[in-house]
Amino acid sequence: SQEEQVRERRLSAVGQLAAGVMHDVNNALNPIMAAAYLLRHHAESPEAVRDYADRIRKAAEIGAATASRVGRFIRQEPVHPGGDVEVDLSLLAEEVLDLTEPMRLQRSSESREVRIVRMFTEGAITRGLPGEIREALLNLVQNAIDAMPDGGTLTVRTSVEGSDACMAVRDTGVGMTADVRERAFEPFFTTKGAKGSGLGLAEVYGIARRHRGTATISSVPGRGTEVMVRFPLQKAAAPEVAAPEEILPTRPN
Ligand code: ADP
């Protein structure tokens, strides 16, 4: 809208950076808050208390790593060539699902359960910055959960397609209208009012581009959304992977 365009122009580079930092801080805090809620209301045994405490620590560590990353960015330290490593998308996806489990557990405790389906392919490996790719996945999973206020199914898929290593996050949520889909990657575009920053998908897009990859959205209003990110495949020793189409259920388009 016009109002958003005005707002966008007003934001200085510093303001944009601050908004980005706030977004990342929020992303780190959400799993911590959910785990603390569960610790307060649903930890029935000493083991459960320890488990939630571990989750809080792990989420806080990832938050701290994010803060260091932002710090490096502010100081304009170059991501030195060779600083990138082999990234196994399936391992990262598992890590992100683990990290966001408290958010989903909180939902099930409120009978708005988010079911998880994992469809991982071996060898979905790229080269890049694992912190960034983790942040991208976290944004996608967060959006998928937001899109299913009454619960639903979250499918996280990794695959090898031609010379691409792919990761896709799908939900059975509210979906996007064509208008929203067209603008979804724009920085500061949000339909979530004060709760949204409009930076999640913009960050996903930027991360995909920096890794010489792409990000695409397929969505059907009322049915659900899939965001697919493709990275250049890092050829591993073991070839032969199942054609991903063979294990795909019908996808929204
Ligand atoms: P934010 O989540 O802060 O609004 P994003 O850039 O992540 O910012 O998303 C922009 C907009 O795209 C959201 O406000 C929402 O309208 C739409 N969107 C993103 N992901 C989904 C999804 N999984 N399902 C439905 N709509 C989505």
Mean pLDDT: 85
Q: Per the principal axes of the C-alpha atoms, what is the gross shape?
A: globular
Ligand inventory reads: adenosine-5'-diphosphate
Poorly predicted tracts of residues? none
Distance between the terminal alpha carbons, to the nearest Å? 26 Å
Look at the helices and sheets and give the structural class: alpha+beta
Order of helices and strands: HHHEHHEEHEEHHEE
GO molecular function: phosphorelay sensor kinase activity
Keywords: Coiled coil, Phosphoprotein
Domain Histidine kinase: 20-235
Protein name: histidine kinase
Walkthrough of the structure:
The protein has 253 residues and is of the alpha+beta class. It is built from eight helices and seven strands; from the N terminus they run H-H-H-E-H-H-E-E-H-E-E-H-H-E-E. A hairpin with a 2-residue loop joins strand 4 (152-161) and strand 5 (164-171). Bound molecules: adenosine-5'-diphosphate. Residues 20-235 form the Histidine kinase domain.
Topology, element by element:
Elements lengths: L1 H9 L2 H30 L3 H29 L10 E4 H11 L1 H9 L4 E6 L5 E4 L1 H17 L5 E10 L2 E8 L6 H6 L16 H11 L3 E7 L3 E9 L21
Helix pairs in contact: 2-3, 2-5, 4-6, 6-8
Supply the key terms:
253 residues, alpha+beta
In short:
With 253 residues, this protein is α+β, with helices and mostly antiparallel strands. Helix content is 48%, strand content 19%. It binds adenosine-5'-diphosphate.
